Amino acid sequence: MDRDAASVVTVGVWRDEIVDELERYIAVPALSPAFDADWEATGHISEAIAMVSAWIGARPVAGMSVEVQRLPGRTPLIVVEIEPFGVAAGGSTVVLYGHLDKQPPMSGWREGLGAWTPVREGDRLYGRGGADDGYAAFASLAAIQAVQAAGGSHSRCLVLIEASEESGSPDLQPHLEALGERLGDVGLLVCLDSGCATYDTLWLTTSLRGLVSATLRVDVVEEGRHSGLASGLVPSSFRLARILLDRIEDSATGRVLLETAHAAVPPHRRAEAEATAALLGSAGEDFGLVGNLRLMEDDPAEGLLATTWRPALSVVGADGLPPTRSAGNVLRPFTALRLSLRLPPPASAAAVAGELADRLSADPPLGASLSLIDVDCADGWDAPELAPWLAGALNDSSLARFGRPMQLVGEGGSIPFIAMLGDMFPAAQFVVTGVLGPESNAHGPNEFLHVPYAEKLTGCIADVLFAEAARTRPGEPAH
User: Fold this and answer.
1) Domain 3-208+380-470, what fold?
2) Which pTM was predicted?
């Protein structure tokens, strides 16, 4: 494959088409079902599906078919099947994965920006979903198009773009079951929904944390009562919730107290974190700490492990608490807290959810009425060892396109599909990477896509597709 010719295609498609399409996509508030229960009636996910699938269908890619798979009560799945091209050997399938559902807009966008307002400033394209993960569908097809246009070969490709990832991918397993034998023999999975520690080289994700999400609700009275009459006698629902949280987290240290939520860090992952911390000179992301706030870990390598291999609890939402400016002197009827518990890759999310429920429900304080609802589980993932052909192809591509060797890093987020497919195809190889780099702020305000990085990453994916097709032909280089 002529790598320079492939670069001309990937960069050209990005600059002539993809950025404009992403701006249209960003403007669509395609909230994931967890944040828009009426998504079918709202129609935004359907609009995004139609927009992306139409763009894909117009690609000059040989042997391609595009369909939208629909299941009752489930978000749609875009399925793009592309026949082997060139002299690709073997019968394996390469799955390229992404999603187009989005997180809520959040507050805090700086002046002139907004979740559904695409704005291009220099290298950055601002707006919700561009980096997480709307670009993936466009980049995947641009990479395949580049391989074909540059005289390369690729194996059978199956591009899957889902619409429930930000809700924990509840619709994906049924879609995979519906695909059945169409999945084929998956030898390689390319996932573009992860991150990079810098924008100057190719970063490969080596692990992902799991996740248990649940809503803890404590009810104390049927309706709000004057605090001058009730407080001191009727227990505060917030205080009871705080007592319950102390059962699962040490509030002084942040240590999670659930035994099932812990796992030993493998020596090679610890060594990887130490090497990455030495390269970066820090634990990675600049979090924009306010005032004199200190991080929970001083050592950069321990900081990386804290966000990739250790459990952590966050309260990410609350009900029953009025805004401070409209809060009356009332003992409130209830407090509901949305809990997000990140887990080390080997931990069983189902086991953690079970222990969480047991800890919270046993002997409620003062006999309080409590419930644990809307429990969602996603297992983490620890990457298998890279096959020599893939390690070589990735490093060679990084050197060619970035001028630097490939780097390895664990990620603190969750991608349920990775663990799901890893269980289905234990012999498969994985390229999990993405554009969520410094300050890109996925899920938060001011999210942006670093366009030049996305262009080069697309070229790297083209290189990998060609290398995968070439690896079974003895004597022929894979780059």
Assistant:
1) Aminopeptidase (3.40.630)
2) 0.90
